[in-house]
Every structure is written in structure tokens, then in C-alpha cells.
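Annotated sample (chain length 543).
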Amino acid sequence: MSTREILTLQFGHYSNYVGAHFWNIQELSFDYTGTVKTEVNHDILYREGQNSKREVTYTPRLLLADLKGSLKTLPASGGLPEDSESAELLWDNVEKIEDPPPAKNEYLADIDSEGPSTEEKQYNLEQDVNTWTDYLYPRFHSRTVNIINEYRHEDENESFDIFNIGSSVWKSDFGDTFSDNIRRYVEECDSMQGFQINFDCTDGFSGLALSCVEHVADEYTKAILVHPIIPSHFSDNNPSTEEERDKATLKDSIRLVNIALAMEQLSEHATFFVPLCTGERGWRKPGKPRAFDYINYNPELYYHSSAVLASAFDTLSQKYRHKSNTYTLSDICADMTGYGRKMAAASLGMPFALHESNYLIEFLNSTTKPIYTSITPSCKIATDKIFQLITARGIPENYLKAPMKEAKEQMNLPAYRCSNVKEMFELYFQANNFLSATNVTICEKPLELKTPFPNIFSDKLNKYGFVKEDDRPEKVESCAVIAGYHNGTFISDMLEKLHREVSRIKFAKLHKFKQEGLEAAEYSESLNRLAEFKDNYEDDFEL
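Output written by the structure step:
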């Protein structure tokens, strides 16, 4: 059976926060004993190689981009031991003048020391994390990290905040190097599925990522799944003076235009794209944080909110990484993009909090609210006339229903005839989604919540993430999760809100965009194409 490899691309600081959690989840779930059954084919996202000592390496098939000054303790070489050794040999006879390396926090120091397990200690990562590398567990291949040296992270004087700036950077040597690295990864693959691309869509990384998406679409006939990501918070969202309010309004407008330009171009070049944000609004400001039962996260901490999105991304991607599933990236894109509807919404239910003494049949029969929450901005997911791909993980079969001798009223429910978790979810969605098509994937293993995943779960949960019947103290070690992609006419409302918001901005006020080469006619045409794209979601089809 072929591996069906995927190349992952990450653009932007917040997307790298999400990526750090995602890759942590992958590597901290690896089994090195050979005694644990694995459901995921890790070779889809990872590549095997050798270092200079002919030792086997296993690293993500990943390219990421960020600005100068964002890495802190992670070397641009990716951090594998041979990278630093090779550098020492190359520069042996040259005097080096460099800043002292940033101090590592306790968690990173413990990883390097290979001492006691990090699971046995309590860390204060809420205070210690200043960038995504401060909790990054894995190390990367030497070609993975790509730094834009012309712009510095958090530099207000020359900020990387305009779509067209990112487009210009792609046309420089950076784009040549990045595209060469893509080609090298692709040439290593035997039977490539395609690309999964996450990027910050509110700043210059939107233009950089879209230039890359266009390049990939032109050069490779592979599926391109894209998640444009909006951070959960911006530091200027709480202005206290009139001057700060004026600056914040301008920055909100700039971010909104970047989002709109990205969405319009994604509608042309991506195979399938799904905007993500833990804020309810997303357009102009993130808005109120999405609420999840039994989770208490701080949206102002990227370390927290990015963990929520990474959990969704890990669960959603199970569908094309699962050993038992024949679904591919191309299948997902084909199933979800009929009628030119390339954009969809995503949902997350975390934890899927059954009571520890209850059964799934009781939970699904009695619940009166949705079992998931939208994580797509300005989007309420409909229940009728939709296409959806659902993935549920971590619900044991013995939680399905009571044995016949104890079933009592359960036996009167149609769902009692279901023989497994998959059948019961299929029946649930059939009953709750009128004129809809649902594909359900079930994974046995839950989401493992190992350090440095943030401690954002309620103390009402047991270690498996189910609701406790008493007050015994337990640390949540894993949890059941449900996540989905959803498409239908309801997406039209989301696009309408985006188009309406961005249309209120007068081009004459977008001085920096004009300085970077965006013309009024080009801008107007982009907004017109965005409006035309919305027409694909008119309610004129039948399932």
C-alpha cells in the first residue's frame, strides 16, 4: 500500500503557534516500544532521513515561514543535532560575533536534559511562552524553517502587515528558495496526495501564502486544502485613548482587506479552503471567544487558543491519515466542493463530554443543543441541506449502549439497533440534518493531552475527559473529540458579512496598500469577484 504523502506548509506567527501544538500532538503520541496499536499512518506527514552520522531521522514533511526574531530558542536550521555540528565545522576558522542565545524556559531545558519525564512536573507555560518555539517539542529538518529577514517580528516601524508586501516577498529570493524546497520534498514522495496549508490571513502572510498557493496550483496537479487562520486576539483590540482608537480602527480595516483579498484569491487557486478562528466574528475583530463546555481558555493567550484549533486540525485530518480509511485529500476536496463551493466551515466539540456513568445512546437522544461549535468566523452552521464530513474519536464501544439485561427504556429507541459508534452517529445525523449528506469517520484513540498542552479543562472531568460523578481530583490526560467540515447555502451569509464589511472601507484611506502597488480598479475587481463567488451558494440544488 502506498504512503500517499502530504506536504504541510505554515505561514505566519499564529499559524506556527497552531502548528507547534499540532506537531507536538503527533510526536508525543509516537510509540517507540512497538506494543501500542496505532491508527494513524505517520508516514503521510513525516519523512525518514539520515544525519551526517548515518543515524535515522524522522521529521515532519513541513515548510514554515515566519519573521526575523520570532524563533528565539529554535535555530533556523531546525534544531537537529547534526545541524549545529555541521555549522561548527563550516565556520571553524572564522571569528563569529553573535548575540547570546535566549534563555530556555524550564520545559525546554528539561527536554534537552533528557531527565525525568515532563509529564511528572508542573510548568508555568502561561507566563513562560512568548513565542511558539517556547513549547515546541519536536525538531525539524534543516529546510523546514524559512525566515523573512527583511522584516522583524513585532516591529511597528516597518511592519509586515499588507497583503501586497507578502506578494512582493514571494517574488524575491525568498520565494525562489521556498519553491525549491517544495520541489525537493515533492521529488522525495512516491505517491503524493497533495498539500495542507495553514496561514495567517490578516497580515502580509496572506499575500505570501496566496502567491505560494498559486505557484503550487500551477506546478503540481495535486489537491490543496487551505486553512486561512485569524488569531484569537490582537493587542490593539482594547484601546484606551482617542489616538489609540483611531490607530486600532485603521489596523482593523487593514486586516479586513487582507482577509478579503485572501478569500477571493483562494476561491480561484485553492482546491478547498476553510477559514478558522476561535472568535465569533473574525471580520474586523475576532469578537467574543467561542465557548466550549468544560473548557476555560484565555483568548488573549495564543498558547491557549491555538491549542483549540490544533486539536480540531488533528481530528479533522484523521480522515485522510487513518490507516483503515481509504479517504484521500482529493476525495475530501471533491466531496466538499460541488457547485463551485470551494469554501466551507469547520466545527469542534471538545471535549465530547459524556457522563462517565452514561451511554452514547442516552447522550445523543437527550441533548437539545448542537454537539459541536463553529470555529469558522461569522458563521452559524446550518442543520439542513448540507454536505458534511464528521470525525469522532475516543468514544469507547462499551459506552455505546447498555447490555440488553440492563437496557430498559434504551431498547425502545431506534438507535439501540446500532452495533457500533459509527452507526449511531450516522443515525443521529440522519435524524437531525434534513436533506443532508454526512460521511462519518470513527477513531478509537482519543486526543492525548500531554505536556505542554495547556491545562484548560474543567476539574469536573475525569482523566479520560468524561464528566465525573463525584469530586475526586483527577488530571485530564485525554478526551473524546468530534470535529467536522460543513458546506451548504449557509456559507452565503458568512461571505455576505465579509463583503459588506470590506465594502464600507474607502480605497482612498488604504494609503499603505496603494504604496505597495494595489490599484483602485484591481481592488474593486477583487471585491466584485468575491461577491460573484458568493453566488455559488444560492439555494438552487437538490441532494
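Annotation: Residues 83-94 have pLDDT under 50 and may be disordered.
Annotation: The radius of gyration is 24 Å.
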